[in-house]
Design brief:
Layout lengths: L1 H22 L14 E3 L5 E2 L5 E6 L4 E6 L8 E2 L12 E18 L6 E7 L4 E6 L4 H4 L2 E8 L7 E12 L7 E2 L10 E3 L6 E3 L5 E2 L5 E6 L2 E8 L8 E6 L7 E8 L4 E6 L7 E4 L4 E7 L5 H5 L3 E6 L6 E13 L11 E3 L6 E3 L4 E2 L5 E6 L2 E8 L9 E6 L7 E8 L4 E7 L5 E6 L4 E7 L5 H5 L3 E6 L5 E13 L3 E2 L4 E3 L5 E5 L3 E7 L8 E4 L2 H4 L4 E8 L4 E6 L7 E4 L6 E6 L5 E6 L6 E13 L18 E2 L5 E5 L4 E5 L10 E2 L4 H4 L15
Parallel strand pairs: 8-11, 12-17, 24-29
Antiparallel strand pairs: 1-10, 2-5, 3-4, 4-10, 5-9, 6-7, 6-8, 6-9, 6-10, 13-23, 14-17, 15-16, 16-23, 17-22, 18-21, 18-23, 19-20, 19-22, 25-35, 26-29, 27-28, 28-35, 29-34, 30-33, 30-35, 31-32, 31-34, 36-46, 37-40, 38-39, 39-46, 40-45, 41-44, 41-46, 42-43, 42-45, 47-50, 48-49
Length: about 675
């Protein structure tokens, strides 16, 4: 029996070998299961049952909803049930915008407490990366995600759009938040979304402890302030929340200590800020929001109030009688004339000068001149300025000339501004009429196209008083028609007839094959100009050799084929002279040619995308007694010693726009003392 079993096993083994051998050519290829790296929670959300939420978009790409909490403070939205094991994921990426607040909760299939974060939602989209690296065991139990808008509140309204709610296996590396993160403001004025006026004169708080003491008397907010040295820009604020697209103006009715500057702005919107000088009576201050986008309006989260703005020490009192947002409001806006360039003229004069708002500059127009008296006697006025507004594309201009007369040894800082870059130069008056020039050729075309202001700072960075006269401020092109004389390299060979053009006649005898004519350029007039354009005419069959700077690398031969003018250009960093050989290497030879025009200009070079500018050795301290800067081989070490009153003392690098034109990324690698 055992032998029979053994024989059967032998046949079975042999048969199996045949089967395996027969299957070798048809090997089974294993199925490759793609690695799971993300899990999308968006899509198919539902109201929790209290009819608080109205869902407008409910797809895998977006969850868009409004809410009206009515009497349901804990009403929620819920995701579909999650049946996947989420334990492999390390973060939850949340992208959200709108107007409102929300809790985002991860709930489990047992009695394990939920994990939660609280988010303040504004009109500017924000992306958060919730760090879940240490939550694998918890994530294995998660079976749904829940949203509670305006948590714990009744009668609250808002709208929220979520465009990312994705679990991912990658490690959190963006704006990282952790369990129980909460940036929901607890002291906020909420707009109900329907009233035509939103009153928010409440819930004010001092940003800096002890500076602003705030009390309330009826509808009035009473602010007593005491700003010590170093607290020049201390402020108070009130927080707001809501959909503000219907509002165009913010109105404050105030009364405060005379002689102090009151400045108010929404968020960090400097362009929407406004200020007045308090005079001890009831006054209005209006913020104009009409230039803000709808998203920027909805992103307003606070209003900041600076009393005695820029000044410390200072003390006094301010009463805010009203503070509200409204759609339309009639008030007397100051008339500010703008200097508008037509885009075609070769020169453009700047007029319409105004004090910058600190009541420092008294500007009077006398004939075509502007007579300016200034008085800046306190530290908050160190950088008080006057200005003229611009509009137009100034890319055709290469310099801005200021013709001015000022008091001997007084200084003035002149500046042109654009949203994409500025250029400033400081000058000293010598008591006579002078011409000061800002070289615009170092600015980028984008900066010149966006120029919007010319600014002047008398006694920049300090106190002082005096007077100066603006005779003219003029934009000019870079084109310089060469007006220096041509001369003959060998006496009598070249002669010149000058009128609207220059006709050069030559008569070369044997041995004068390389005789030339030359123009030595004025170094001051040609500084910064990098392109030479020559337009010439000559006799058909003859030629000239043009050799700028006596440089073989620049030389060009012009062969005349007819009587028509020929245009040639040369580009180099600096031009010193122009040398011309008539019929080069030929003698005897006689004839003439005509220089129709010879022009120098500046042409911006092409951008090098591989350009890297290392500026670590270019740091300069505003005050050498505070910052000690020591450049090294691989790094720059900065030691500082700031005393009382040096709160905002700084160091800087000043870039030449021409050197960094086209670059859009600034990288700093720093190390410093902990804390």
């Amino acid at each position: 029996m055992k032998n029979t079993v053994r024989l059967f096993a032998l046949f079975l083994l042999v048969g199996l070998l045949f089967v395996v051998a027969g299957c070798k050519e048809d090997e089974v290829i294993p199925t490759i299961i793609p690695e799971i790296t993300e899990y999308n929670v968006l899509g198919n959300w539902a109201d929790g049952g209290d009819a608080v939420y109205t869902i407008a978009t409910n797809t895998a790409a977006e969850l868009d909803f409004t809410y009206n909490k009515s009497t349901f403070p804990d009403a929620y939205l819920t995701s579909p049930e999650i049946t996947e094991d989420l334990s492999i994921f390390k973060k939850l990426v949340i992208t959200v915008e709108g107007t409102g607040t929300m809790y985002l909760k991860l709930e489990t299939n047992d009695d394990t407490p939920a994990k939660m974060v609280g988010l303040n939602v504004t009109g500017i989209a924000g992306t958060y990366e919730w760090n879940l690296m240490a939550a694998s065991a918890f994530l294995a139990k998660v079976d749904r995600v829940v949203i509670v808008a305006a948590p714990g509140k009744e009668l609250s309204v808002g709208s929220i759009s979520i465009t990312s709610l994705m679990f991912e296996t990658a490690v959190a590396d963006g704006y990282i938040i952790n369990d129980d993160f909460n940036n929901i403001p607890s002291n906020v004025n909420e707009y109900n979304g329907t009233d035509q006026i939103f009153d928010f004169n409440d819930k004010w708080e001092s940003n800096d402890e002890g500076i602003y003491t705030i009390t309330y008397e009826g509808v009035n907010t009473i602010v007593d302030y005491d700003k010590p040295a170093g607290m020049e820009w201390a402020f108070m604020k009130t927080q707001v929340q809501g959909t503000f697209t219907a509002f165009n103006y913010v109105v404050f009715i105030v009364e405060g200590t005379s002689g102090q500057k009151l400045l108010i702005k929404p968020n960090e919107y400097n362009d929407a800020e406004s200020f007045i000088w308090l005079d001890g009576t009831e006054q209005e201050l209006v913020l104009d929001l009409t230039e803000l986008t709808l998203a920027e309006k909805n992103a307003i989260t606070d209003f900041k109030v600076f009393i005695a703005a820029g000044l410390a020490p200072a003390e006094g009192q301010l009463t805010i009688k009203e503070a509200y947002m409204i759609d339309d409001y009639e008030f007397e806006q100051p008339v500010i004339e703008v200097n508008t360039y037509n885009g075609t003229d070769n020169t453009f004069g700047v007029e319409h000068w105004y004090d910058g708002g600190d009541l420092v500059y008294d500007i009077a127009k006398v004939g075509t001149d502007y007579i300016v008296d200034y008085e800046k006697l306190t530290t908050n006025l160190h950088w008080a300025f006057m200005y003229a507004n611009l509009e137009g594309d100034f890319t055709n201009f290469a310099k801005l000339e200021f013709e001015m007369t000022g008091t001997l040894n007084k200084t003035i800082l002149l500046k042109v501004e654009s949203p994409t870059g500025n250029k400033e130069v400081q000058f000293t008056f010598d008591g006579t009429k002078q011409v000061f020039t800002i070289d615009l050729s170092t600015m980028t075309p984008t900066q010149l196209a966006d120029l919007n202001k010319v600014v002047m700072f008398a006694a920049p960075g300090g106190v002082g008083a005096g007077e100066f006269t603006i005779h003219s401020v003029t934009f000019k092109t870079s084109d310089y028609e060469i007006d220096t004389e041509w001369t003959s390299g060998d006496a009598g060979v070249y002669t010149f007839a000058t009128g609207e053009t220059t006709v050069i006649t030559y008569n070369k005898i044997a041995g004068q094959e390389w005789s030339f004519t030359r123009n030595i350029l004025d170094a001051v007039k040609v500084a910064g100009l990098n392109t030479l354009t020559l337009v010439v005419k000559g006799t058909a069959g003859k030629s000239i050799l043009v050799k700028p700077n006596d440089s073989g690398a620049l030389e060009q031969t012009i062969a005349f084929t007819d009587a028509n003018p020929v245009t040639v250009t040369f580009t180099t960093e600096t031009f010193v002279n122009i040398i011309v050989f008539a019929e080069p290497n030929v003698a005897p030879a006689a004839g003439s040619f005509e220089i129709v025009s010879a022009t120098l200009s500046y042409v911006a070079p092409d951008f090098d995308p591989s350009l890297v500018v290392n500026f670590n050795e270019a740091w300069v301290a505003n005050s050498a007694t505070i910052y000690t800067i020591t450049p090294g081989e691989d790094s720059t070490v900065v030691a500082y010693d700031k005393l009382a009153g040096n709160d905002w003392e700084w160091m800087r690098v000043q870039f030449d726009a021409k050197d960094v034109a086209g670059l859009n990324t600034l990288t700093l690698v720093v190390k410093g003392t902990a804390g």
